Amino acid sequence: MCTAVRALPLQHFVQRSQSRSLYRTLLRVARQAPREARAGLAAEIRREFAATGSVTDQRQHAFLLAQGRKKLAELEQMLHLTSSNR
Fold first, then answer.
1. Whole-number mean pLDDT of the chain?
2. Residue 38 burial (10 A CB sphere; 0-12, 13-18, 19+)
3. What is the pLDDT of residues 11-48, one digit of tens each?
4. Which of 12, 16, 26, 77 is 20 to 30 A off residue 45, Cα-Cα?
5. What is this structure's pTM?
6. What is the distance between the alpha carbons of residues 30 and 38, in angstroms, rounded to a whole number?
7. How far apart are CA 30 and CA 9, in angstroms?
8. On the CB side of 35, how many CA atoms lie within 13 Å of its CA?
9. 81: which DSSP letter?
């Protein structure tokens, strides 16, 4: 009995690595949020990644990475503004 194993393209592994890096960065930035918002923010990040974790289409994955980077920039900007108002 022969089972065919489909080789995954290199881009799949690159995108997966980028996703993990983005996830860790988002959680790290979330720790800079005000104490009362940290848990909820981290939970939302985990929820978003869990909901899209089964995406296998490379174009859709690239789109999600771009969206995630945009949200990271917005979060960093928002937290910078919040910290400067203290």
1. 90
2. middle
3. 889 999 999 999 999 999 999 999 999 999 999 999 99
4. 12
5. 0.84
6. 6
7. 32
8. 0
9. H
